[in-house]
Design goal:
By secondary structure, this protein is mainly α. Helices cover 69% and strands 0% of the residues. Helix 1 runs antiparallel to helix 3, helix 1 crosses helix 5 and helix 3 packs across helix 4. The radius of gyration is 17 Å and the shape is globular.
Amino acid sequence: MKKLMSTNYSAAMFNTATLLLRIVFGVMIMKTGYDKLVHFNEMKSTFINFLGMGSTISLILVVFAEFFCGLFLLIGLFSRLASIPLIITMAVALIKVHHSDVFGEGESATLFLGAFLIILLIGPGKASVDGMTGK
C-alpha cells in the first residue's frame, strides 16, 4: 500500500510508461489514418477544406500525419518531430471539426491531443529507436 501512494518512480517504469503511451496511441491513430487512406477516393470530396488548401490536400496532410507520423511514433523514430503534425491535426479536428466540444464529439480528439502533447514534452523514452540511438 505504501508503494502505491508513493510519488517516486524508477527510470524503468518511466520508460515502460512512455513505451505503452506510444504503442497505444500510435496504433489507434494509425488505424484512423489507415481508414482514411483506404477510403481516400470516397472522402476527398467531402473532407474539410482547411485554410483554403482544398479538401484533397487537407486529406493528404491528415493521412500523412495520422498514418505515417503515427507509425514513426509507434516505433519511436523522430518521436518529438512526428508528434507535431499529429498535434496540429488533432487541434484542427477538435476546434474546427468538433467545434471545441471536448466532452462530446471531440472527446477522442482531445485525448489524442493530450497524449501527443505529453509525448512532445517527455520524449519517447529509452524503449524506442530514438532512445537506442541516443537522440
